[in-house]
């Protein structure tokens, strides 16, 4: 347990609690004996606009037939998904009520390892409202891959994240949301992950301006180069992104990017890892152009490509 300023922690919780909600979903599932039956799900959410916009995880509301949102006051409202970004595991739900207590959003790009954070949410559907656990920022720029999704640029924390916490905020001692809790490693202790709040800012901006999420897409998969990889693949650089797959028909393939290319720059800025590409794309929209600096078989070259729109969470 980290040493913390108790007064600051309690004040932070008091600030954020009114903006934390419980989300209950009902979706139709197939049960072998009874056929199609309703199945309940549980998660948390964060009020991010007083007009009724609530942020949560994509996996909390995915395929939901009905969404119920319980405010910290106990009032229950009906929610509707107005935007999702599967690749970020983010979704935004709208409730038909204004004047809600909007959370303060911090700056996740300024986080540092060792910083004290609080995870707030509704674990296990326990009665009595949101709960809080305490920990630190264990690591930054973490990547989490599974068969279903690839999440990048995550915040790792040892603050306990339990079932039902998904979609709730990770909070600093100022009471600002600096992440959205998304996952915990079940076979480990003290390893949880949150999506940086700055990624959510882009999603909210898209919904408010365009009525939908419009994430750009390059159509590449890659790994961050380390000195070990540089030695194994006989590369001339010790950092960058080694392209391991180019999606057929995607923007990168159409404009000449190939497997085993090394991306070392984007629009004049240095690329040390895939997170740099991800963060640069936050400022872009489908249809805009980017210039990549590439090392290919010992030769330096540039690739200019037009970004597409991200399909079903592909990177």
The CA-CA distance between the termini, in Å, is 36 Å
Rounded to an integer in angstroms, the radius of gyration calculated over CA atoms is 21 Å
Total discrete domains: 3
- Topology as H/E string? HEEEHEEEEEEEEEHEEHEHEEHEEE
Strand segment count: 20
Low-confidence runs (pLDDT<50, min 5 residues)?
Answer: 29-38
Helical coverage, percent range: 10-25%
Strand line-up in the sheet with most strands: 1-2-3-6-5-4
Name the CATH homologous superfamily of the largest domain.
Trypsin-like serine proteases
Mean pLDDT across the residues is 87
Q: What's the total helix number?
A: 6
- The CATH architecture assignment of the largest domain turns out to be Beta Barrel
State the CATH class of the largest domain.
Mainly Beta
Largest sheet: 6 strands, antiparallel, barrel
Structural class call reads: mainly beta
Features:
315 residues, mainly beta, Thrombin, subunit H, Pdz3 Domain, 3 domains, six-stranded antiparallel beta barrel, 20 strands
């Amino acid at each position: 347990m980290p040493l913390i300023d108790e007064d600051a922690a309690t004040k932070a919780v008091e600030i954020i609690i009114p903006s934390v909600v419980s989300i209950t979903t009902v979706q139709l599932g197939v049960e072998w004996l009874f056929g199609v039956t309703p199945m309940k799900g549980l998660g948390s959410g964060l009020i991010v606009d007083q007009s009724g916009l609530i942020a949560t995880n994509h996996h909390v509301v995915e395929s939901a037939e009905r969404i119920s949102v319980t405010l910290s006051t106990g009032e229950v409202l009906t929610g509707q998904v107005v935007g999702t970004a599967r690749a970020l595991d983010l979704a935004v739900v709208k409730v038909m009520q204004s004047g809600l207590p909007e959370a303060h959003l911090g700056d996740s790009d300024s986080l540092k390892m060792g910083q004290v954070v609080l995870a707030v949410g509704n674990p296990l559907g326990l009665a009595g409202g949101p709960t809080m656990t305490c920990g630190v920022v264990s690591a930054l720029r973490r990547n989490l891959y599974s068969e279903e999704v690839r999440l990048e640029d995550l915040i790792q924390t040892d603050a306990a994240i339990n079932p039902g916490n998904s979609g709730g905020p990770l909070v600093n001692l100022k009471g600002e949301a600096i992440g959205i809790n998304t996952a915990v490693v079940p076979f480990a202790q003290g390893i949880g992950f949150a999506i940086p709040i700055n990624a959510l800012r882009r999603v909210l901006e898209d919904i408010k301006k365009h009525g939908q999420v419009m994430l750009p897409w390059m159509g590449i998969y890659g790994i961050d180069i380390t000195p070990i990889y540089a030695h194994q693949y006989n590369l001339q650089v010790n950092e960058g992104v080694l392209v391991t797959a180019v999606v057929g028909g995607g923007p990168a393939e159409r404009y000449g990017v190939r497997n085993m290319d090394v991306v070392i720059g984007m629009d004049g800025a240095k690329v040390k890892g895939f997170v740099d590409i991800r963060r640069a794309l936050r400022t872009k929209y489908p249809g805009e152009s980017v210039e990549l600096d590439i090392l290919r078989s010992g030769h330096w070259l540039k690739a200019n490509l037009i970004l597409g729109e991200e399909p079903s969470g592909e990177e």
